[in-house]
Amino acid sequence: MIGILSFVGFTAMVAIISYFATRTTDETSSDGYFLGGRSLTAGVIAGSLLLTNLSTEQIVGLNGSAYKDGLSVMAWETLAAIAIVITAVFLLPRYLKGGLTTVPQFLAKRFDVSTKTITSALFLTGYVVVLLPVILYSGSVAISGMFNVPELLNVSDKTALVICIWGIGIIGSIYAVFGGLKAVAVSDSINAIGLIVGGILIPVFGLMAIGDGSVFGGLETLMTTNPERFDSTGEAGQEVPFSTIFTGMMLVQLFYWGTNQQIIQRALAAKNLAEGQKGLLLASFLKILGPLILVLPGMIAYHYFEGGLASSDLAYPELVRAVLPKPLIGFFAAVLFGAILSSFNSVLNSSVTLFGIDIYKQHINKEAPEKTVVRYGKIFGVCLALAAMFIAPMIANAGSLFNYLQEINGIYSIPILTIIVIGYTTKRVPAIAAKIGIISGSLLYIISQFWLQPKFVNTALEDAKASGITDSGELALIQADAYPHYLHVMAILFIANIAIMLLIGKLKPRETPYVQEYTKQVEITPFKYVKQFGAIIVIIVVGIYIYFAK
User: Fold this and answer.
1) Which of 176, 263, 309, 340 has the smallest number of Cβ neighbours within 10 A?
2) Cα angle vertex 214, ends 212, 217, to 5°?
3) 3-state secondary structure of 471
4) How far is CA 38 from the centre of its chain?
5) What per-residue confidence (pLDDT) applies to 17?
């Protein structure tokens, strides 16, 4: 009962503060609704970025990966810091100079409207088919498990899951669809504080549990018992082999932090460039600390449960249940609930933005006043949320959620990153090159990962078994060697796409070179020390890798 009361109390507090913080924002205008009136400051931007990124598919999924592979999976966190620095120094000044509300808006100016529409449609498809349902499903599994909802409501596990999915979906929709970006960003910032506190408590209590009450004793036990798991360089067969850091991993990070609408929309809403850059740099520094919350608990769980859990994705929830004092479970569940809501409502708000600005205003009703654009954006958001709630229960058999999500995202992430990079670094590559690049990139990735890869892997495993190999470890290595890692495939397709687009630009260039105009919607004087702070963050990340390299 104490757990439920603390859960309800913290959740209600966040809602009340968000309401009072946003009630004066004019949400009938596009800037007011979609970008919070272009008024966000550094702290709010950093908090919102952190919470938009962190959700149960990240917390549960990445700790599950750490349970399986050890420290090498920290690449998903530490390399993000470098990608955010690149975004702050290179991309954000260009975005704000163009006064963008959505990333695809740039593509309309640089290439043409149909390129923008294709990109927005790809984003929206990825959000509704993959991202929103995964967030809802993984969040519902965590909340249902923490509060033992099946027993509490006397229903089956499946029914409890559906109840939680719809509960999270409805509350998240209210924030995102009816509150606009500022309500999302303010609630994110409050939840960020709770998540950092709650997230650090889990490894603290976990280390105390294996160290006879001592945090440092637990850390020493962890490092001396399985020293090979504290290796920053992943091996073949693991989720993040070391070589992938220099290929697709960095590209995925650049797409996610630099061009993904759900993330970059927070920085687009900055009151000026300096505040946006400071917010990104603060978020970048916090990502370096991310493994304390997203990797260390999984490694503790491996030691605590002696590697005996039925599934790696159970590592985090089982550790929480085992080591966290009962009175704190309600608070931690509220924080986790906030993280789930944050990711859900952030993706939903970005989807509403993409539809309202890039599709409704562009193709359905070009003369629509801003109030009408916002209204139809909200209607689309409700439909999208309902679709995600119906799809979410079907993800039960998706396997490793985190890896599944990253691999599926490759269908649209690398093609979109390619055309944005070419768009900003060249002046004469034409619109036809962008269309070919984005369509061919998506199709080639689908053919590679969902047709060629299964064929190669199945053939290799059949040959191995025919040769008398039955050891699961050997078979796993054979499977890993049968086809390039999906992160390598992304890098190969990225280079191929760029080559195709540059060739088209050489053979059939634009008649006039592209010149970006300054719309003067926000002040674009950069933060004085952006490059210096960025360099410090990059040096810290490289230092961490060198220190833990075996």
Assistant:
1) 309
2) 85
3) coil
4) 23
5) 67
Q: Distance between CA 74 and CA 545 in Å, rounded? A: 10
Contacts of 55 (CB under 8 A, 6+ apart): 135, 138, 139, 339, 340, 342, 343, 344
Are the C-beta atoms of 58 and 217 separated by less than 8 Å? Answer: no
Range of the domain at 267: 2-398+516-548
**pLDDT tier at 318, thresholds 50, 70, 90:** confident
- Please indicate whether residue 17 or residue 64 has the higher confidence score (pLDDT): 64
Count of domains for the chain: 1
Residue 273 lies in a domain: yes
Q: What is the pLDDT of residues 130-152, one digit of tens each?
A: 788 888 888 887 777 777 788 88
CA distances (Å), 496 to each of 338, 489, 499, 500, in order? 41, 10, 5, 6
Provide the pLDDT for residue 181.
Answer: 47
Confidence of residue 375 (pLDDT cuts 50, 70, 90): confident
3-state secondary structure 354-408: HHHHHHHHHHHCCCCCHHHHHHHHHHHHHHHHHHHHHHHHHHHHCCCHHHHHHHH
Coil vs helix vs strand at 34: helix
Is 282 a member of any domain? yes
Does 18 score more than 70 pLDDT? Answer: no
CATH number at residue 113: 1.20.1730.10
Examine residue 476 and state whether it is found in any structural domain, yes or no: no
- Report the C-alpha gap between 59 and 76 in whole angstroms: 12
Q: Give pLDDT, residue 22.
A: 55
Cα–Cα distance for residue pair 251/486, rounded to 1 Å:
12
- Mapping DSSP onto H, E and C, the string for 170-238 reads HHHHHHHHHHHHHHHHHHHHHHHHHHHHHHHHHHHHHHHHHCCCCHHHHHHHHHHHCHHHCCCCECCCC
